[in-house]
Design brief:
The chain is α/β, with parallel strands linked by helices and about 250 residues long. It has one domain: 3-Layer(aba) Sandwich (Rossmann fold). Helices cover about 35% and strands about 25% of the residues. The chain is built from ten helices and ten strands. The chain has a six-stranded mixed beta sheet, sandwiched between helices. The protein has a four-stranded antiparallel beta sheet with strand order 2-1-4-5, covered by helices on one side. Strand 7, helix 7 and strand 8 (about 195-200) form a beta-alpha-beta unit. The model has no long low-confidence stretch (mean pLDDT about 95).
Length: about 250
């Protein structure tokens, strides 16, 4: 069974159709890259998966299943814990690195200091950030570099013990070194988590993803194993985009 199964998904913003009858399965513990030019529906897909589109008063039709269960049958707080999201621009919370990581879990239940310490260590270690910040956990998170802030956002998502992590252009504003660290983090975490990675960087998709889906003007044009998509795509529009003829 697919971890996420999307069937005939359409999404509308004030009469504008952003997604057009999308059918897509995401396998457990894979990195699914979603590529395509601007306004192709990539970010709208992510917003549909954990129902963030509701904030924009958008509406959808079709079906999204998480482990075979309709996401509308899952309480919204539980859904957004199970399907976390990391945005293009890192958004750290006011306060310390430690508080950034403990804030979410404390909203759900009471936890003691020892458990907080373990949670902080595990999340930072998994996000490849522990060695860089272990001596300044009580410093303001805003004092971290951009790449460190993005990895802190990944750690903050991991602290909630999600099953799926949505990544919306997570490296768009980062230098190559920070980008490489985040890609390495994703590859290490894949054994425990399912990723859906929206990226405009086709080279990044080629480096880290197991499968790639190409979107254009709200339609899913093609999906398949990444190596095949990048070397022998079926649709000429996919080939044209990958070769930089448009986008």
């Amino acid at each position: 069974m697919a971890k996420i199964s999307i069937k005939k998904l359409c999404l509308y913003y004030n009469g504008h159709q952003a997604l057009r009858s999308i059918n897509l399965d995401v396998t457990d513990k894979e990195i699914m890259a979603v590529i395509g030019p601007a306004n192709s529906g990539k970010s709208s897909l992510l917003r549909a998966l954990n129902r963030m589109y509701e904030i924009d008063y958008a509406r959808i039709s079709g079906e999204i299943l998480l482990d075979g269960m309709d996401i509308f049958d899952i309480p919204i707080n539980d859904l957004r814990r199970r399907i976390g999201i990391v945005f293009a621009t890192p958004v750290v919370l006011p306060g310390s690195i430690r508080k950034n990581l403990s804030y979410g879990p404390k909203l759900h239940r009471r936890i003691g200091k020892a458990e907080v310490d373990e949670l902080v260590y595990n999340a930072l270690k998994s996000a490849n950030l522990w060695d860089e910040v272990k001596d300044r956990l009580d410093d303001s998170a805003s004092r971290l570099s951009g790449g460190q802030q993005q990895r802190l956002c990944i750690a903050r998502t991991l602290a909630m013990h999600p099953e799926v992590i949505l990544m919306d252009e997570p490296c768009s504003g980062l230098d190559p070194v920070s980008t490489a660290k985040i890609e390495a983090t994703m590859l290490e975490l894949k054994k425990d988590y399912t990723f859906v990675l929206v990226t405009n960087n086709t080279k990044q998709a080629a480096r880290v993803s197991d499968r790639t889906a190409f979107f254009l003007l709200g339609e899913l044009i093609e999906v398949g194993k990444t190596q095949k998509i990048f070397t022998r795509p079926v649709d000429t529009r996919t080939d044209d985009y990958i070769r930089g003829r448009f986008g």
